[in-house]
Fold this protein.
Amino acid sequence: MFGVAAAGAILELHAATHRSQRPGAAGRPPGVRCTGAGVSVPVAVVGVGNMGRHHARNYRDLCKDADLRAVVDADVNRAEEIAGPSGARAFTSIEAMLEAVPEVEAVSVAVPTSAHHEVARTLLSADKHVLVEKPIAPTVEEIDDLIGLAKERSRVLAVGHVERFNPAVRQLRRLIDDGKVGEPLSLVARRVGVMPPQVKDANVIVDLAVHDIDIFGYLLDDAEPTDLFCNAGRALAEDRFDFADIFLRYGTVDCFLQVNWLTPVKIRSLSVTGTAGYADVEYVTQRLDYYRGGAAVEPKSFAELAALSSQQPERLEFPHEEPLARELLEFLRSVRGEPAETLYAEQARETMVVAAKLVALAESHELARSG
């Protein structure tokens, strides 16, 4: 268990700021002991830098489902700032929080990736339900250790793949299920922008690409890639990959993913080409455009060519919501033993298996180029 010094060393990095189950499939791992239905769950957040502060805010807003009791961060001023609006208590160590607020039942972990395993293990050992921000842990061995401990302690161990809960992605899945795009042929995703200052210990594949690897599997019925290719490099960062071009084949479906921390504009997009249509998602604005397939037309003039190229999409309408709020609500439902769309560690493990293979491929290519 962490003392003040150990927690400080791990959380300070944040101070600068299997198989995947798609949402809609309810249930939880067998043997999990849960809080009763309809009960407001006492919760805590460990690490309230860039991502953790949003966990705390959403728990505060989900007042009928969550009761934020504690915030843990090495920066005591930040912990107090985030804890204050909800009347929660602020701590600089996990050990102090567990001793002072034993009634906490569920905890969000938003510390640096390198600390995920140790922090989650400490909390599971204290019989807390845990949601760990993606990636669940740096290695598959550490992931398996946490999965085993969660089963042993009969606790929920969930993973924060927030894009699963983006309304535009969920609507895209329905579009595919309804046959509107026909048989999917290819998926293309871009997740690029400048390097966020809070990322200190993860490369662009583990930190960024895992989002879209998870979404590829979600849209393709949780399939596993049959072929993988990855070209990655270090353009500005010397200690990690900061760009990668990734190709995955899922049976007959080809998927291309570009991720980097170089592009000066933030882009989060996904498109699907099928035998009957084309769909395009913009993650941040939750926009989904749909183009119906049709018979080929041979343009007889430049004007006709321009008209074909400016086809207006069908802008699909659906309720928008903050994906993190939905993700945390589903986590709380699973803690209470209710049907939930939680992404469990056993399922998220497969995304990290693919990511680990991609990192190994990139390293081998890099070694071959340098040799």
Notes: The chain has two domains: 4-163+324-344, 164-320+355-365. The first strand starts at residue 41 and ends at 46. Residues 1-28 have pLDDT under 50 and may be disordered. The CA atoms of residues 89 and 149 lie 28 Å apart.
